[in-house]
Amino acid sequence: MRRITKTNTPEFWSQYLQKRRNLTYQALVQTEEGRNIARKLRESLVDEQKFLCAYCCQRISPDHAHNEHICPKERYPQKSMCYENIVASCETKGAQSTCGHSKQNRFDEALFVSPLQEGCERHFRFFSDGQIEGKTKQGRYTVELLNLNAYRLRQARKAVFEACFYGSKGDAEYIEWYLNEDGEELNPFIDMIQYFKQKGEFDSSLMLIPPKEDD
Ligand SMILES: [Zn+2]
Description:
Layout: H1 11-18, H2 25-28, H3 32-48, E1 66-69, E2 86-89, H4 99-103, E3 124-126, E4 132-134, H5 137-146, H6 151-167, H7 172-179, H8 190-198
Antiparallel strand pairs: 1-2, 3-4
């Protein structure tokens, strides 16, 4: 997870809400006009998050993402149109659902680690086989709720780790490039690579030593 810093509410969103103060998200998506606005919001969120899922940090696009309500829209209808409560999350289906689709209405506000929280990254640790683990009670709850150890996600993280660790052969420039945040799009699982970099895994003197798997 990577911290998301929300920009101001987009103009089109606040203008639309000005005339519809009691509108809920469920009511919004009943109409075609509303669905178009919701789509525009998704595009704006994907841009804001530089094309990464708010929770798992895999790549998303406006066509492969959904508007995810941190406080679930069914349980918190009064917050369902609040820009601060909505992020873009990846599209997954069935038993391997992750992130927003895994979370659905299950949500304990006291335990959930939100990507809007400062220091949210500190609740998680990563392993070279693609696993993620909660370091705190909140982190463990969140990993479970979002199903962040789904097979597909673990495999994808492992591939990125191996490309950075073995593929770059200790090339600090490659890691710098991977972690660069200046562009419009971020590299997938940048949170994991940042974690390993902070642990010193990519220091050239350590490249021949198998990665440490604990803090
Ligand atoms: Zn995701």
